[in-house]
Amino acid sequence: MRVAIGTNNQAKTEAVKKAFAQIEKWCKNRLEFVNLEVPSGIGAMPLDDEQTMQGAYNRVVALIKRTAANFYVGLEGGIHYNILSQDKKKPLTHYSLKSWACVSDGKKFYFGCSSAYPLPKGVVEKMFVEGKELGVVADEIWEKENLKNKEGTIGVLTGNLRTRTFAFQEALIAALSPFYNPQVHKYKYKKTSKHENTKT
Asked: Regarding the domain delimited by 2-113+164-181, which CATH topology (the fold level of the hierarchy) does it fall under?
């Protein structure tokens, strides 16, 4: 089974290998991984879920055009934010870091994401004001080197209880579920006469 990965990043590559190792019984055949650096087609730091998902999807589409494989994997990390406006005078803005995975067999596309990890307000401000991506900002703030190829910002935020690799692995396991557990994903809803006029 050949798995194409749309990056040369070490943390992301390790995540893909670990995710497929978890479903090794389903894979049956020997796993072969190939890395190809392909563009995300978006900015260096996606600023919402839609952009992040689009980046992961774009990587998969680029992979399909470049190589033959059984599965194509695109991984993208980005900012997730919510504005809770119960108090109109002082709405609560919450920023967090999420990892998204897109996987395809060349025909069907599925997505999965990691847990959301709270980002300090100062980190977000430095990114926006200085126009730098999170990996660069994280290296500067915490005096690290090349975090994005290692434990990542998530590793720093959680004291290495979770890492960048773990987050992408979590996202990919979710995205792959329709492939390794197809029975539950085949369910099709059939309206009964009781609900025939209900719009969906």
From this structure: Maf protein (3.90.950)
DSSP the chain: -EEEES---HHHHHHHHHHHHHTHHHH-SPPEEEE-----SS-SS--SHHHHHHHHHHHHHHHHHH---SEEEEEEEEEEEEEE-SSTTS-EEEEEEEEEEEEESSS-EEEEE---EEPPHHHHHHHHHHT--HHHHHHHHTT-S-GGGTTHHHHHHTTTSS-HHHHHHHHHHHHHHHHHSHHHHT------GGGTT---
Q: Domain segments of the chain: what residues?
A: 2-113+164-181
Cβ-in-10-Å burial (0-12, 13-18, 19+) of 183 comes to exposed
The rounded distance, in Å, linking the Cα atoms of 7 and 27 is 22
| Positions in the chain short of pLDDT 50 | none
pLDDT of residue 167: 97
36, 94, 167 from 17: Cα distances, Å:
15, 32, 13
At 92-138, the pLDDT tens digits run 888 999 999 999 999 999 999 999 999 999 999 999 899 888 989 99
Rg (CA), the chain: 19
